[in-house]
Amino acid sequence: MPLEESLASKLTGTRTTCPYCGVGCGVIANPSDDGQAADIQGDPEHPSNFGKLCSKGSALGETLTLEERLLEPELEGSKTDWNSALDRVAGKFLQTIAEHGPDSVAFYVSGQLLTEDYYVANKLMKGFIGSSNIDTNSRLCMASSVAGHKRAFGTDTVPGCYEDLELADLVVLIGSNFAWCHPVLHQRLLAAKIERGTKIVVVDPRDTATTDAADLHLKIKVGGDVALFNALFAYLANSNAYNDTFVTDHTNGLGSALEVASSFSMDEVVEATGLTIENIETFFEWYEETSRTLSIYSQGVNQSSSGTNKVNAIINCHLITGRIGRPGMGPFSITGQPNAMGGREVGGLANQLAVHMDFEPESLDRVKRFWKAPNLTRGPGLKAVDMFDAVHEGKIKALWIMATNPAVSMPNAAKVRDAIEKCPFVVVSDIVENSDTLTLADVKLPATGWGEKSGTVTNSERRISRQRSFLKPPGNTKHDWEIICEVAQRMGFNGFSFQNPSEIFREYAQMSTFENNQSRDFDIGKFSEVSSSEYDQIKPFQWPKTGNAEQDTSAKRFFANGQFFTIDKRANFVPTPVRSAINLIDTEFDLVLNTGRIRDQWHTMTRTGKTQRLSTHIGEPYVEINPKDALRLNLKDADVAVVSSKWGKAYLRAIVTDRVSQGNVFSPIHWTRRYASRACIDEVTSPAHDPTSGQPELKYTPVNIRKMELEWWAYIGTMKEIEPSQLSGAVYWAISRRGDGWAVELAGDTSTGDLSHYLKSLTSKFPDSEIISFENSVSKEFRYSEFNSNQLQAAVFASFNGPVEADRTWIGQNIGKTLSQEERLRVLAGRPPSGQVSGKIVCSCMGVGSGEILRSIQAGANTVAKVGEQTCAGTNCGSCKPEIAAMIKVQSEVSTKMNLEAAE
Ligand SMILES: Nc1nc2c(c(=O)[nH]1)N[C@H]1C(S)=C(S)[C@@H](COP(=O)(O)OP(=O)(O)OC[C@H]3O[C@@H](n4cnc5c(=O)[nH]c(N)nc54)[C@H](O)[C@@H]3O)O[C@H]1N2
Ligand SMILES: Nc1nc2c(c(=O)[nH]1)N[C@H]1C(S)=C(S)[C@@H](COP(=O)(O)OP(=O)(O)OC[C@H]3O[C@@H](n4cnc5c(=O)[nH]c(N)nc54)[C@H](O)[C@@H]3O)O[C@H]1N2
Ligand code: SF4
Ligand SMILES: [Mo]
User: Fold this and answer.
1) Contact indicator for 595, 409 with CB cutoff of 8 Å
2) Where does the 4Fe-4S Mo/W bis-MGD-type domain start and stop, copy by copy (predicted)?
3) Confidence band of 834 (pLDDT split at 50, 70, 90)
4) Which domains, and CATH codes, for the chain?
5) Residues contacting ligand 3 via CB (< 6 Å)
């Protein structure tokens, strides 16, 4: 297609925003005729992504099928109509409040709601029910950043913008796996690095795709950040970077903060961080000499019992150098969810009141008048961990969960499940029919999902973008805001008769500017009178947008003028004492469990788990463990490991690798009971949390690990749909979509009985399918393949002697294919012809495995671009480029070593 034509075709369709991460990429969607798929392109005009998308964004079209969708309301397990469901919810909430008071009910909501949904939920709970028991999964995500911002700036303000990535000379990524979690921004950073030579420092306890691209990787001990940044702060105080004018004119509290920060000797810093003196010095020197320094941070900072102190320790370094609010510099908290920022703006956390106002008497008075609230709450409510504890203790008796899956994502998840199960009345609004949380609900409410709903979201740089619908609501689904408003009206409250999201947004904008007069940072008064059609046309914009051009000159960045939102307009240095994790390792639980994300899955996999494209990169839950620890524990690569803590356990595939340090293990967060036998890592994690922000310590849980003793191991590729309940014959299993069917890893003990019989019960779809098989009594293995008219139905590999070996990627690609006699035998052998080994999928967009990439590197492709030319890997979204680059690096190190050895 000629360039102009292809650009033009990209520009037609519905302009909307990606529903996954906080980058907030613009998307152009064109639905298929049946409305169960869509063509998805990056929006070239959206200022967050300029047309780029990552692997998850690119695969959005494949997540729109109605498979596994919740399409009808359900009451106590039976389908019902909306009237009955909504009456029951309103009635039960009213009854509970009448009998036990407003604090006996709670909402647990989500950074994946739209701003309009969030606004009405918050208004209902705080203004009309009269409690502040509304908290959100953003507590697990952004609470420490919010608290840190408020302590330093007086408000929850993100000072910078994405353009700073292109304008910085030094980017420090702290506790952020940018390459996998914010891939489009990472691509922007790497492009800038090529353009202007930006230096990248990554502070992370493990090797990641992000550290692979760093000039300096500070492989810090989990929790060592406060010690590191305190030392940097003290160093800067005596350096050329000290900005006396800024400190004198615009800040308070340097002395006491510096005193605390200086309390550690360099030896103590080395001990607390596990870093070398040389690396620490290099970092400090780079920081000192680079005025355009940007500090990007995420969950390695926030999810800690010292999370708020970590945030302030980082901000202190920017305040002492005056590096804030100007191009290419500043502290930059990168948000996780698509609308975690919107939720913070609305005030949907239990310790906020509404729209950047808290519980001071004047705010309470103002909000009461604005909402005409009959029963305004008076003070903060329960934060997530405390809220579920209160549910467990029976203090909260009616709970409404929206757009989040706490039975999987809350720490100490088994207790959370127990609490939800015990709670007398639980309502869950979701888009899928069966999440681990939904199975515990009394009332299930079917919400519209991405593509069907309409509203606004705010990304990490304070940019508000429209999510627009391009599909009809399927079945009997309703929009979240509609459901909330209908319940509010049935409870007898005025103020919820909105007809569409634009009316909610208008009220929200009015509230943001109500008696504001520049006293609050969040002001979008320009939209106070926005009409429905103008709302539909809103282009992505950054707040503030007061309607007064002069006031909005700071829209891109805050604080360049040194005016903060504290009483005397000065920023605060905050003393940040070093504290250890709350639950420390001991002789029984001697390893530190760190948790996080993988590139192609989103949280609890309710959407990304539906696409085979996103399930091929990593299809099984795992735990990474250092070779020295593995040796001590007699654990080998590919063994099944039992990871246990005081709170619970998980069964995970062991990956033995020095990408994690000795004493540390890492596991991803995504697997649920839908996709694995027992891999929910939050059944293991500790509920300890930061005393200021309430954010749980999800990156540090003391655990121990042992090898699971097993009798048999198997791998199945099959076209037949397999239900989790059928897999109870295995002690360990993990299932993922592959090709036209499913891939299942299993392992078990003697309780399974006849293994061959059991496996056939899982795979055999057609009674007369043709089976070819192979058995080796010496190696104690057997395999069989099933065909229906030469179409491969299932390929099964089993062993009584350890994990099975088979090229899983290649087998997955053959499931459902019609095969020749020779190919049939190769499938039975589990291997492609030599020289064609697929290896693990690296590029999920183009389906390219590590085998093919390695062969092209070995044949001379020495850049990511050349590998792309030869294999197509990395040529679509580019999310896999860091992994290809890492493979090139390893291969070049290998050949240098071989050359040296040959020369000797
Ligand atoms: N692919 C994908 N992308 C996502 C998501 C997803 O589910 N999948 N979720 C989105 C959401 S909601 C969020 S919140 C973001 C999260 O984005 P990130 O915060 O980048 O992701 P995580 O993997 O949780 O953790 C980041 C890193 O912190 C490191 N870390 C652990 N402990 C410490 C420590 O004590 N100090 C330091 N310096 N580092 C530490 C971990 O090793 C890990 O590499 O991702 C968003 N993007
Ligand atoms: N150990 C550990 N645990 C963690 C983390 C970690 O790093 N380590 N990270 C934490 C963080 S940062 C986060 S953000 C959380 C995320 O954890 P969750 O929020 O629990 O995870 P999701 O899978 O995103 O849940 C979203 C739910 O909303 C549903 N949904 C999707 N769209 C809609 C909609 O439009 N309306 C409604 N009503 N429902 C919808 C989905 O089907 C899904 O069930 O996990 C936290 N838990
Ligand atoms: S980086 Fe990926 S997941 Fe995040 S908003 Fe953009 S396309 Fe969506
Ligand atoms: Mo998050």
Assistant:
1) no
2) 11-68
3) confident
4) 3-63 (3.30.200.210), 74-138+339-550 (3.40.50.740), 143-334 (3.40.228.10), 591-707 (2.40.40.20), 712-829 (no CATH), 843-903 (1.10.10.1100)
5) 18, 20-21, 23-25, 49, 53-54, 56-57, 182-184
